[in-house]
Amino acid sequence: MDLGPPLALSGAAVAGAMVLLWLWSLPLRNASIVDAFWGSAFVLAAWTAALAAQGGGPRRALALALVTAWGLRLSLHLLRRNAGHGEDPRYAAMRRGHGPRFWWVSLFTVFLLQAALAWVISLPVQVAVVAPATPLGPLDALAAALWAVGVAFEAVGDWQLARFRRDPGSRGRVLDTGLWRYTRHPNYFGDACAWWGLGLLGVAAGAPWTLVSPALMTFLLLRVSGVALLEKDIAGRRPAYRDYVARTSPFFPWFPRKESP
Questions:
Q1: Which letter, b or e, does each residue of 123-146 get, where b requires 16 or more Cβ atoms within 10 Å of its Cβ?
Q2: Long-range contacts for 90-95 (Cβ within 8 Å, ≥24 apart)?
Q3: Alpha-carbon separation of residue 200 from 32, 92, 136 (angstroms)
Q4: 10 Å Cβ neighbour count for 249?
Q5: What CA–CA distance (Å, rounded) separates 129 from 115?
Q6: What is the 3-state secondary structure (H, E, C) of 8-49?
Q7: Over its length of 261 residues, how does the chain's per-residue pLDDT go in tens digits?
Q8: Domain ranges (residues) in the chain
Q9: Residue 35 in contact with residue 112, Cβ under 8 Å?
Q10: How far apart are CA 117 and CA 112, in angstroms?
Q11: Are 19 and 107 in contact (CB under 8 A)?
Q12: How many whole angstroms separate alpha carbon 115 and alpha carbon 117?
């Protein structure tokens, strides 16, 4: 199969969309708008590749349905969560650090970097929608099941956290009920599961090398922009979080450990 033209077009589409988003962020003085577009960038890459390729088939339909549901849910969730809160502290710190140059630096370190990551991570889906049509098999069923588990963890975890934050009685407390009782980051665990499921669609389409994409997503969630970044100073700000860390699995869901006397 000739992956070149569809993948090149999808890369150009995502990069172009990120440049337009960057231009919008300049008068707003808010680079955080990139976060809400993160999920939609995967949808854009997949649909661009699909429209640029010949043919169709059940795997293409399955891949497009799964990535669209995942991406739009994530974008809508982040859009609602971030509305009215101004620029995210991470980007605000970058803005202070780079000073007057941030408007230009942000194009490469925020917007185009995320475009490149979204394009690479979405490769299994892009391959699945470009590959010649073949019947679905057990691997596709496993992919869909793993995706469903992941999206359930992600969506329910986000909903439980949003409900907890809306409750005035939660001030100063740590969410340790529901899915958060079994993992400190059910939403990140769900994200990883969903992408390992989508990665299996790439394998089913004859491209096992695309598993590098969910591996990269998992690395980012664990070591870069997810668990590591979130937990860097949270224990210092919320002493109760130290006890939560001591008894709760950091990523993979498991029964909480008993507290020491």
A1: bbbbbbbbbeeeebeeebeebbeb
A2: 90/229, 91/30, 91/31, 91/32, 94/31, 95/29, 95/31
A3: 31, 37, 12
A4: 17
A5: 19
A6: HHHHHHHHHHHHHHHHHHHHHCCCCHHHHHHHHHHHHHHHHH
A7: 678 899 999 999 999 999 999 999 999 999 999 999 999 999 999 999 999 997 779 999 999 999 999 999 999 999 999 988 899 988 999 999 999 999 999 999 999 999 999 999 999 999 999 999 899 999 999 999 999 999 999 999 999 999 999 999 888 889 999 999 999 999 999 999 999 999 999 999 999 999 999 999 999 999 888 787 778 767 666 778 888 988 999 999 999 997 654
A8: 1-133, 136-261
A9: no
A10: 9
A11: yes
A12: 6
Torsion of CA 195, 201, 207, 211, to 10 degrees: 20
| Contact (CB, 8 A) for 66 and 144 | yes
The count of C-alpha atoms lying within 13 angstroms of the C-alpha of 7, restricted to the half-sphere facing its C-beta, is 18
Torsion angle, CA of 208/214/215/217, rounded to 10 degrees? 160
d(CA 100, CA 117): 26
pTM: 0.93
